[in-house]
Design brief:
The chain is α/β, with parallel strands linked by helices. It contains 28 helices and 22 strands. It has a 6-stranded parallel sheet. The chain has a 5-stranded parallel sheet with strand order 11-22-21-14-20, sandwiched between helices. It has a 5-stranded antiparallel sheet with strand order 18-17-16-15-19. α1 packs antiparallel against α2 (45-57), α1 (27-40) runs parallel beside α3 (63-77) and α9 (176-186) crosses α17 (377-387). The longest helix has 22 residues, at 253-274.
Length: 676
């Protein structure tokens, strides 16, 4: 491939043109080229610096090792746990997704290096910087087949895989007759699907017989409804329910609060059905509040060290974790390490949602066979005995031990209308069906603003749209009429403001640009001020919504928390930022919050674990590799009642739905292999 150097400002590569055969590159030339790529934004500066650091550790290191190391670090920054050498050599364009001029640069380097995978493996294996297994040499890189890891990510994969296998290899003997008796009382209504078993009931039974269970399903399939009944079942069948130690957790404060709120509501309903037979409310109150994973594990400021780990495990018998798709590989390793050997962990989540921003797609790897079932005849026999449900033959095909402890909820009780149809079409990659659903909306639930401009997004923020009124006007009108006379009325007013704000949200794929979070927040803020819906007198003003961007243990606020700056009760003057956790309000002086950003618009990633009555999803003109099927699906499924898609043209939507995320990882293979 050729490259025109005049397209680059300052002729950055004048001394190392792409036409120069890379075989002539010295180590210094390669490192200079990596630095130049970082200047262009193709690599992170950290990636280039890592390669330079390795060259200082081992001056005789080959260019293959240095280039592979920089790319392995780069892939980690994009959410992958390793670099797939075979895919790199088969085509850098497919693997990296860089712009054409960047691909010309890397191709010029690759063309001067050995072309076969075996030669790359031999070169890497011959380096003192690369190990073939975890050992005492502490090499910073590790090669397993065609997967090149940064050492610690292989360690995380090994720990997760070994823990999962250990927790699924031996299943406890349970009293199927007793389970059946309780499950028939807990699930008093027949399954919603005519041709499917009651998967919620199946999930509860499966979760009682092992130390790990995974319950996955899309929106409206009743994951928290199911887990509430599982809790009741665990209490009912425990030797001593009063001594059963149960913890609830989620990756974010918002998700944790929603988990606890949903479970409490479901248990209240169950209590009415069961009467005095099981004191569910008393037992549930003993669980306490749901916590963030960082809080549960005892995260400490400015360090990766946690209070709870293998040497100081959590003091619990059961752990229930919601929104597990958001858990990155490092956190999952830490979580499983901190569980005592006897404890049971239940992971809840939608396997099709966006994976964590950080490296790993753990829920996707764990649920790889969830769609197909892959249940053994022993599992099918147990399910029938414990639930009275019969697993369809298409799901009975011998699978690994993890498959026996994984249940996919397949019937959505909430998403049956146009929004649900759109979500299903997008998730399946059916572009034609998705376009048909968008272009022929029925009622106000769904609208597509195609060929839109940023000003159309501002209009939605001001007033909503026909059939979905509100925007941010409703909460700002409440802000303009504060109730400050006494603490009680002020608390009621704060809850009203926070609840009104949470009814509507604008979600973006990007952070920067006119179609991104930063640009839209500025534009929306200015428009609201011009409409006199807010009075901006400085950085902080009454009504400013903010998102916390960094954990701050001194103020008890965490990354992803959303609050609103409001005046305090009468007698106080300084603005405080109020956060709503379920039914509880907490606040922090605005002046104490250093790491926050305005949150009229937020990224789809940051919205996970939340739902809004009306969700607006904004897709940009050119989102590159960020525009994926999972991003669109996640954005759609944040909508509870109304959904609006805003695009500059049809191509943005089609491109996103056609691109399915693939994260490089060895976890799925490790789960079916031996000890790592």
């Amino acid at each position: 491939m050729s490259r025109h150097t005049d397209t680059l400002s300052g002729d950055l590569f004048a001394d190392t043109p792409a036409t120069q055969h890379a075989a002539t590159l010295s180590q210094a030339d390669l490192l200079q080229r990596l630095d130049a790529w970082a200047e262009q934004g193709w690599l992170r500066r950290l990636d280039a610096a890592f390669a330079r650091f390795l060259s200082e550790l081992e001056p005789a290191t080959s260019n293959i090792t240095l280039l592979a190391a920089a790319l392995a670090a780069h892939m980690e920054g994009r959410g992958h746990t390793c670099l797939l050498l075979d895919e790199l050599l088969a085509g850098a364009a497919t693997l990296l997704g860089w712009p054409a001029i960047a691909l010309a640069e890397i191709d010029s380097v690759l063309h001067g290096l050995p072309a076969s995978l075996a030669q790359w493996q031999a070169s890497l294996n011959g380096s003192n910087l690369v190990a073939q297994a975890l050992g005492a040499d502490n090499a910073p890189l590790l090669l397993v087949g065609c997967r090149l890891y940064l050492r610690r990510y292989f360690d995380y994969e090994r720990r997760v895989a070994n823990s999962i296998r250990s927790r699924t290899q031996s299943l406890a003997a349970v009293d199927s007759t007793r389970l059946r008796s309780w499950l028939d009382r807990l699930f008093v209504t027949p399954a919603a699907g005519q041709h499917e078993p009651d998967w919620q009931k199946v999930a509860c039974a499966v979760a009682t017989r092992g130390q790990l269970a995974i319950i996955t399903g899309g929106p409206g399939t009743g994951k928290t409804y199911t887990v509430a009944r599982l809790l009741a079942l665990l209490f009912a069948t425990a030797d001593d329910a009063d001594k059963l130690r149960i913890a609830l957790a989620a990756p974010t404060g918002k998700a944790a609060a929603r988990l606890k709120q949903s479970i409490d509501k479901a248990l209240d309903g169950l209590q009415q059905n069961l009467g005095d037979e099981l004191p569910l409310k008393t037992l549930a109150d003993r669980m306490g509040a749901a916590r963030t994973l960082h809080g549960l594990l005892g995260a400490r400021p400015d360090t990766r060290k946690l209070k709870h780990h293998a040497g100081n495990p959590l003091d619990i018998d059961v752990l229930i974790v919601d929104e597990a798709s958001m858990i990155h590989l490092e956190m999952m390793a830490a979580l499983l390490d901190a569980l005592p050997a006897h404890a049971r962990v239940i992971l809840l989540g939608d396997k099709d949602q966006l994976a964590s921003v950080e490296a790993g797609a753990v829920m996707g790897d764990l649920c790889r066979d969830a769609e197909a079932g892959h249940y053994t005849t022993d599992t099918a026999t147990f399910v029938t005995a414990a639930t009275g449900e019969t697993l369809p033959a298409k799901y009975i095909e011998p699978g690994n031990a993890l498959a026996q402890q994984t249940v996919m909820l397949r019937v959505s009780r909430r998403f049956g209308g146009p929004i649900g149809q759109l979500a299903l079409a997008v998730n399946a990659g059916e572009i034609t069906q998705a376009l048909t659903t968008l272009q022929t909306p029925v009622g106000p639930d769904l609208q597509w603003l195609n060929r839109a401009h940023p000003q159309d997004i501002v209009a939605l923020a001001l007033c909503g749209r026909e059939g979905a009124p509100g925007g941010y006007r409703s909460y700002l009108e409440l802000v303009a009429s504060p109730q400050l006379s006494d603490a009680a009325s002020h608390d009621v007013w704060v809850k009203q403001v926070l609840t009104a704000f949470d009814r509507f949200r604008i979600l973006c794929a990007l952070r920067d640009g006119d179609w991104g979070v930063a640009g839209l927040n500025r534009t929306i803020e200015q428009a609201l001020a011009e409409e006199k819906l807010l009075r901006k007198t400085g950085e902080w003003y009454a009504g400013r919504p903010v998102m916390v961007t960094r954990n701050d243990y001194s103020t008890n606020v965490f990354n992803g928390d959303i609050g609103i700056a409001l005046p305090p009760p009468a007698g106080q003057s300084a603005l405080r930022v109020y956060f709503l956790d379920g039914d509880t309000v907490r606040s922090v002086l605005a002046s104490r919050l250093a790491d926050v950003e305005t949150a009229f618009a937020m990224t789809v990633h940051k919205s996970q674990g939340s739902e809004f009555e009306h969700t607006v999803l904004v897709l940009p003109v050119d989102g590159g590799q960020i525009l994926t099927r999972e991003l669109v699906y996640t954005g759609i499924t944040r909508a509870r009642e109304r959904f609006t898609l805003v695009t500059p043209g049809q191509q943005a939507f089609e491109t996103a739905v056609a691109r399915k995320t693939k994260r490089a990882s060895g976890l799925a293979q490790a789960l079916v292999g031996g000890e790592m």
